[in-house]
Design brief:
mainly alpha; Hypothetical protein af1432; 69% helix
């Protein structure tokens, strides 16, 4: 499995190209790797780990779903590939500014919350790890935006309750701790 995850990491890294993390000079891939490693504490399901590594590819890169599918079919079974793609699609934000320029952030986030409530438990589990990683960075590096982001994250976590319960509890604690650190 580790060789498979290395190939997926390489694909995701290549897809993200020269992108860097928002608050550091690190290559973007460090974030999906941290998300995957957090999720890995709770599951060894290759489809979930693969989706964690790929969770931002469709949203943040020019790579399309069919390219991801084609790549995955070389290293996973058809069933594993389809499950991984389903999770990645569920984790891809729909209500983004470029697609809905007339909606303000509050409205877009409310619509995204309604959408995310319906995603699979596997996708919600990855979302918990994603929120944790982003919350820690945002709280540390962007004290002006952090209150907004952390409030939104806590709202998401209060409504996304189908994923791994232990990871959910850990994510709530991380966000609450980050909120307290701003005081």
């Amino acid at each position: 499995m580790d060789n498979t995850l290395k190939k997926i990491t390489s694909f995701s890294d290549h897809a993200h190209g020269d992108q860097l993390r928002k608050y550091s000079p690190e290559r973007y891939i460090v974030h999906p790797i941290r998300v995957m490693e957090t999720v890995r504490k709770y599951t060894e399901d290759i489809t979930i780990l693969a989706a964690a590594l790929l969770h931002d590819v469709l949203e943040d890169t020019p790579v399309r779903k069919e390219e991801v599918r084609h790549f995955l079919l070389d290293i996973l079974t058809v069933q594993q590939t389809e499950k991984t793609i389903k999770i990645v699609v569920e984790l891809t934000d729909v209500y983004v500014r470029k697609n809905y320029p007339s909606m303000n952030r509050r409205i877009r986030k409310a619509k995204e919350l309604d959408r995310l409530k319906k995603i699979s438990p596997e996708s919600q589990t990855i979302k918990y790890a994603d929120i944790m990683d982003n919350s820690m960075e945002t709280a540390e590096h962007d004290p002006d935006f952090a209150p907004v982001y952390l409030r939104e994250s806590l709202t998401l976590l209060r409504h996304l309750d189908k994923g791994n319960a232990a990871l959910h509890a850990e994510a709530v604690k991380v966000v609450e701790d980050a909120i307290r650190s701003l005081d």
